[in-house]
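Exam revision sheet. Question 4 asks you to relate a sequence to its structure. Input first:
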Amino acid sequence: MNRATTDLKAEMKKSIEILRTLRDEVRVQVHLGGMDAKKRWDALEPQLRAVEHAAQEATDASRKLVADSVKALEDLRSSIGKELR
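Answer key, structure tokens:
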């Protein structure tokens, strides 16, 4: 395995850890939040499983998929936090 592949796999592993942490935080916030947040979560959650699977391939496409998913979760977490305030 070359260095670029090793670096990409390490980056993907770290990104998946972030994704899982965000997923758990959003899951708790959705439980406390309203129906709109629940609908958005229900649409996003199945995609997260696909992202975790794609990340195992460690390609540029999977890197973008993970980054996009992390952004979507951060946005959802942020909007839920605003709803609860």
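Marking note for examiners. The mean pLDDT is 84.
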